[in-house]
Structure formats: structure tokens, C-alpha cells
Amino acid sequence: MLVVCVYLLRVWLSKVEIIKIYMLVFCYFEQDLSTEKKHLQPIMSALILSELKITHKEHPI
Length: 61
Hints:
Blueprint: H1 2-12, H2 15-31, H3 36-58
């Protein structure tokens, strides 16, 4: 289900909007003090970095 939601977000939203959503989710987990945070933080960081690399390749400066 999560994979479907992420796919739909990628289709419907621009790259900048996707990065904003990732950042909101990342900040939410930053505030969470549970042990799950330790596992999700690197995943969210990797997703944000991968989106930035894709955007840079599509629109080089």
C-alpha cells in the first residue's frame, strides 16, 4: 500500500513538492523518540538525496 501511495505521489506531484513532503515526514520522525526513528532516519535521508540527484540530472544548473 505504501509503495502505491509513493508511486502516485511521484506521478502527480512535481519533484519539489515530493521533497517538501519527504522533509515533513522526516521532521515528524525527528520529533519521535522511539527506536523506529533510528531505522527510518537514514531511509528518509536517502530518499531526499536521491530526489535531489534526479532533479539535478533533469535540470542541471
